[in-house]
Amino acid sequence: MPHIRQLDPSLVNKIAAGEVIERPASVVKELLENALDAGATRIDVALEEGGVGLIRVTDNGCGIAPEDLLLAVAPHATSKLTSSDDLFAIRTLGFRGEALASIASVSHLRISSRTEDRIDGHELLAADGRIEGPRPCAAPIGTTIEVRNLFFNVPARRKFLRQGPTEFSHATEQLARLALAHPGVAFTLTHNGRTARNLPLAQGRRQRIGDFYGNDLADCLLVVDRQERSARIEALIAPPAHSRASSKWQYLFLNGRYITDRRINYAIREAYRGLVEHDRYPVVFVFITTDPTSYDVNVHPTKIEVRWRDSGLIQSQVLAVLRETLLSHDLTPRLGFRREEPGEAAPADTAHQQRTREALADYLKSIDPTQARLRFAPPPFPTKGIRPSILATPVAAPPPSALAHGHDDFTRVAPFAPCAFGDSNVGDGTPDTPSAESTSQRAETPAEATVSKSRLDAQPAASSVIQVHNTYLVAQTDDGIVIIDQHALHERILYERFRERFLAGPLESQRLLIPPTFDASPIQMQVSRDQAELLSLLGIEVSEFGPRQLAVQSFPVLMGEVEPAVFVGDLLDKLADTGEAQSRETLVHSALDMMACKAAVKAGDPLTQEEMTALLAQRHLVDRSSNCPHGRPTSLQLTTRDLERQFKRS
Fold first, then answer.
1. Are both 229 and 155 inside the same structural domain?
2. Is residue 340 scored above 50 in pLDDT?
């Protein structure tokens, strides 16, 4: 039987690093917290290879005395606690004394620091339990910590790190969590020598939110500021019209520390109940200031979980102030037209603007005013009064080779032809006529004829379809009536159509003449890069339009009735929530599901008789039409016998 023995300190630190240092973003978080605790007013962060190659954090704080440098990398050594009583009244971001020791055990660490009362600085080197120094060096007032070759001696941990851009996005999120809570501190972030964020000292939280997420969001936020017993609750909350597809836009801060708390999240959902859709999340920034003795942050090494002395009280307080604020404001969405404020001077007519106008005028004068007209062939059947997303025609299935793209798990369904128009003749002056190919019909096999006949026999009579409350379709069948949820059925039809076309190749897309732009979060920017291939297959092309904006260059044809910028922003949030570790199948299903839901007719949309007829005609042409992609039923059947039984007819 093996004997119990004391572990080597180096091994102890590596074990502790498994909890404290999960990825480069964890190192960034710990070093930023130390800098803020040191009273820094400016912090510069430099990363290489997503933080795996290099993490450098420089601050102008109070610095570390030379005699304390050795203790700085010792386990459980800290300047923030002096007695056990301090553990229950923590007023700093860090307090455990584990971070630097854990970092030094799995990287090459260098610390250089200088205090205000000295003219020279000192540096210390540490790697895998070996320490050199401290020794004199040139250094400004403050501290610089360099972490190189993270997890160089723990290959298993390094193997499971993501690509550099993904790790960088996680590090950016950690910077955002601390920068939002400390607007009085200036931050810069560079990656591989390129400046990614430059956040000057902000006048308030709204300005800092605008620096990160754009002024359009910051300007619409409602202000909450209330003293509730021993807690002060401040918040900046967005109206329901600005809700997002991800909960990542909800930030909770407690005494300057980013936290997660399910009770407060529940209070936020309750405050917005009835104002946002069930699958949408409000944008909320909540800042709580309270006595440190009323909660315990010493729960997890990451220090983002807390235990409240009275969790029910804080939940009710947050719910009350948020709900009261929402009820006291007019939440009617406003059009995004910018009006000039009284007394606001018009922008100066600079020489550059004048030259641009003159160049445009010269170009318009030089081109031939007689341009070729786009002439479209009429469709093979009437389409008047039918929106393109409902209109569809069954066609031949794509070749089996089109399915060999890693999507074997998708079962085949009846495919659909383009829902727009036939072949087009551009500028040839000939009358537009349907092409022979578009009017030809594929010969049916006996088995297909039997299936088609059985499906057509089961279809409700087109002339007997009515719409109830602009939500449900009621139609007569051979043996009773069928009640159909128009949104659920259309969503299933579109999902199957999108999926079939996705299996055959990229979805048909339309190049946008004027690409719409939107303010994007760091995570959205990163997802747009990581999932560029998937977005291209979905018929979406997104490009960066400045440091904080994305532009939608191409958009699927079948989603012409959907606002591209809003949808792409929600889709990026959805893909971020799905998780980077998910399979491609899961990502594809999530994206197609969202596309179908957004493009489908909604409850409350009035439909023409032609649209109702076209929708019901497609019901029996797709598999699993009994349920929408979310699993809700699309229709309910009432037989004549059921009706007779309810009316007690013998």
1. no
2. no
